[in-house]
Each structure stands twice: as C-alpha cells, then as structure tokens.
C-alpha cells in the first residue's frame, strides 16, 4: 500500500511532468470506476499537485483569456491511493489498462496524465479538502506533528500497542506498515509495548547540563527518539527516489529492498496485530501481544520455493488417493452390470434358437424388452452362473441318495410284473 513517501513522490512527479504543459478539454473517467465524475472542462488549464500524509491534492487552474466559454473556476481534486494507486504520464495511444481518470494535454498528438489503480481501492473527491480526522504530515509538518502527539497522550488511541498506534492517521499521518516496522526495529522497541508507555518518556527528556549546545545537537542526531524517526525514515525513502516515479528502466525495487532492514526481511519474526495487519520485528513481541498467535519467521526465497514444491507434491498425492478411492467404489458396480446383462442376452438367444426363431435386424427393441423381462429358465441359468454351487453337508447328501435308490427299486419291480403278465 502506498504510504507517505510514495504520495509525496507522486506529487513531485506530477509537478515535474506537467511543468510548462497546457491541458485542455474534459476530464475523462473510465466506465468501470465507481468514483464520481469530475465536472471540469476548459480550453486551457494547468495542473499542480501537493501532498499531505496519505493524500494528494491536484489543482486544475484555468488560464485567463484562454477560455471561450467565459472564466472557469479552479477545482481541487483530492486523491487517496488505496492499495495500488499511482500516476502515469503517457501518450494517448499508450494509455495504461487501468487508467481510471485522464487529463489530456493541448497538443498533437495528445498525452495524458492518468490516475492508475488496478485494484480500484483508490478514491478521489471533487472540490475536496484534506480530511479533518487526519493529523499533520510526519514529513512536511514535523513540529505540528510532534506537538499533536505529545499533547494528546491521554487519548484512548494510546492505550493500544505502539505498532497499532503508529497506523492511526489522526496522529501519524503518512506512516504505514513498512515504515512502522523499520522505525520500531531501529529503536529496538517491542511492537506490542503500550504506546503511552513508550511516548510518555518523550514529554520530559533527560537534560545534560554539562554538555555544550553543539554536543547536544550531535547526541540528538545520533540517538533520535521515536517521533524523530517518524520524520527521518520517510524522508530517507523520499531522498532515495524511484518507487515508480524515477527515470525509466531504473531498478527502483532493488534499491528499496536493499534499504529495508526489518520489513519482510528473512530471519525476522511476524505477528498479526489487533487490526489483522502483519507487523515484522526482532526479539520479543511485548506484553500486549495477542494470545494464541504463533510468531512466524520469514524464510529465505530458497526455503519458500522448497515449501511450495512440497505443497504441490502433497496436493498431487492427495488427488491420486481420491481418484483411486473413487475407482474402487465404482469398479464392483461396473463389473456386476455387464455380467447380468450378458447372461440375460445369452438366455434370450438360446431360448430363441430352441423355439426355432431367427434374429432379424429389426428385432433389437424386442431383444431389449426380453432382456428386461427374461423367462424363468434364463434367470435360473443366470443365477447359476453368478452363484457357484456350495458344497452340501454329508447328511444332506445321504438323505438325497436314499430316495434315488427307492425309485430305482420300484422301477425294476414294475418291469418284472409286466414280463409275468406277458408270459
């Protein structure tokens, strides 16, 4: 998310690229943006910008004597960048994909100053002013910022951990997630120490009467307090430049990553604060750390790749197991159906042959009907083919043999009586 330094660099970029240029026509808004239309149109106007904390104000100033529709009033448009807002200055034929607000120059071919925001969390306010609930800027209004914090330490905002208080724009306008991590890391302050406890010590700084003024200034520079670092650290980022607003083809990200000492650096620990934001730190988290939260260490890039490969392999194994389980469930059902249907078809063909019937090409539907309602004989045959005969007990076999012998004896007696009668 863009923080104070990024918005200040954006305002400097706008003033640089728009210097000496005249803009003309309507201000165009993209169809997908839910922000309001900017009802400004002039034959000739200039653009200037200024930043304050996490806000940028664009002033559209009509040129006197250049407008055919009479004098036009200047307009202020205040921007809040959200998660991904930025400004770009490009030719009209090369407009960025997510350019949601466009100001065109009075030249041929035209160029455009665009507010680009691919996540569309950014907002602009027509005829806007600085938000009233935002305090003085930590970079451009340092003395007012310091005074605003120290005279309001009784506010309930300072009952929270210092890492959460630093994101409160009412007192720390311009400080964001990476800045708070870097500031607390340099002072070795636990992120979940109570904010009031940390800041009360700055109300009555220790005096060193034996030191000269020059030595006091030197000591202060070498050992800045938390409020001073809230000014110094963002200004370091501004002096570094870049952040998408430097010269083309410059490696801004590499320089910024080399500057970071704590935020998202391998070996550092991290926790989620009460607002769900991740704070990076070193050492103990402090007495107000959320209970039940386990600290996570930032692994190296190599470790991250290894973990991703392991996760992919586990996912593949899990999908293979699921596939095998589904095949095992469907296999027996698939086997039973062909057996019963084949047996039924065999029964039908055999019975047809015995009756002397021939199978003709148009009798397929008849075959299907017979397969659905087979005769008793094919059913018995199918049952016999599906269920192999079980071995009978010895006693049952002996009982079955006795009636068989009796029937044979009676047959022999009948034949003898017939012979006698014949004689």
Q: How does this model look, in words?
A:
- The protein is of the alpha+beta class and 423 residues long.
- The protein has helices at residues 4-17, 142-150, 162-165, 177-187, 195-200, 213-222, 226-240, 252-259, 301-354, 364-372, 376-386, 394-422, and strands at 23-26, 28-29, 41-52, 55-62, 75-80, 86-91, 99-104, 111-116, 123-126, 269-272, 278-281, 296-297.
- Strands 1-3-4-5-9 form a five-stranded antiparallel sheet. A four-stranded antiparallel sheet has the order 2-7-8-6, covered by helices on one side.
- Strand 3 and strand 4 form a beta hairpin.
- Helix 4 (177-187) packs across helix 7 and helix 9 (301-354) packs across helix 10.
Strands in their spatial order, largest beta sheet: 1-3-4-5-9
Count of helices?
12
- Which consecutive residue ranges, at least 5 long each, have pLDDT under 50? 301-306, 339-371, 381-385
Instruction: State the total count of DSSP E strands.
Output: 12
Structural class: alpha+beta
Please indicate the count of domains: 3
Q: What is the overall pLDDT average?
A: 79
- N-end to C-end Cα span: 125 Å
Regarding quaternary structure, what we see is single chain
- In terms of DSSP E residues, the strand content is 15-25%
Coarse morphology: globular
What is CATH's topology name of the largest domain? Helicase, Ruva Protein, domain 3
Summarize the helix and strand pattern as letters.
HEEEEEEEEEHHHHHHHEEEHHHH
In angstroms, what is the radius of gyration? 44 Å
Q: What is the percent of helical residues? A: 40-55%
The CATH class label of the largest domain is Mainly Alpha
Q: Describe the biggest sheet?
A: 5 strands, antiparallel
CATH architectural type of the largest domain: Orthogonal Bundle
């Amino acid at each position: 998310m863009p923080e104070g330094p990024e918005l200040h660099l954006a305002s400097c970029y706008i003033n640089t690229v728009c210097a000496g240029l005249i803009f003309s026509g309507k201000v165009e808004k993209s169809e997908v943006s839910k922000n309001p239309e900017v009802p400004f149109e002039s034959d000739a106007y200039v653009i200037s910008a200024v930043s304050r904390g996490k806000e940028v104000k664009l002033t559209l100033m009509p040129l006197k004597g250049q407008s055919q529709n009479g004098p036009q009033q200047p307009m202020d448009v205040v921007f809040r960048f959200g998660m991904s807002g930025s400004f770009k200055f490009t030719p009209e034929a090369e407009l960025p994909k997510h350019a949601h607000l466009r100001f065109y120059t009075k030249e041929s071919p035209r160029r455009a100053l665009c507010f680009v925001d691919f996540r569309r969390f950014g907002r602009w306010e027509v005829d806007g002013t600085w938000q009233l609930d935002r305090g003085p800027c930590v970079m451009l209004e340092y003395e007012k910022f310091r005074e605003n914090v120290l005279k309001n330490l009784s506010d309930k905002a300072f009952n929270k951990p210092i890492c959460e208080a630093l994101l409160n724009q009412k007192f720390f306008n311009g400080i964001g997630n990476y800045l708070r991590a870097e500031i607390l890391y340099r002072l070795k302050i636990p992120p979940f120490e109570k904010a009031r406890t940390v800041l009360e010590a700055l109300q009555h700084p220790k005096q060193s009467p034996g030191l000269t003024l020059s030595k006091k200034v030197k000591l202060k520079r070498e050992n800045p307090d938390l409020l001073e670092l809230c000014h110094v650290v963002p200004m370091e980022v501004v002096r570094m430049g870049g952040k998408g607003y430097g010269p083309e083809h410059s490696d801004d990200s590499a320089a910024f990553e080399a500057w970071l000492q704590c935020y998202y650096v391998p070996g550092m620990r991290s926790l989620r604060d009460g607002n769900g934001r991740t704070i990076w730190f070193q050492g103990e988290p402090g007495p107000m750390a959320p209970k039940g939260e386990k600290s996570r260490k930032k692994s190296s890039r190599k470790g991250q790749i290894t973990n991703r490969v392991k996760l992919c392999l586990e996912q593949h194994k899990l999908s293979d197991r699921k596939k095998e389980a589904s095949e095992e469930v469907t296999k027996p059902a698939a086997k039973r159906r062909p057996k019963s249907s084949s047996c039924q078809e065999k029964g039908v063909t055999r019975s047809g042959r015995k009756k002397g019937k021939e199978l003709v090409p148009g009798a397929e539907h008849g075959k299907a009907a017979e397969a659905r309602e087979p005769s008793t004989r094919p059913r018995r045959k199918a049952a016999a083919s599906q269920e192999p005969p079980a071995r009978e007990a010895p006693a049952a076999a002996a009982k079955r043999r006795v009636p068989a012998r009796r029937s044979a004896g009676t047959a022999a007696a009948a034949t003898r009586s017939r012979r006698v009668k014949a004689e």
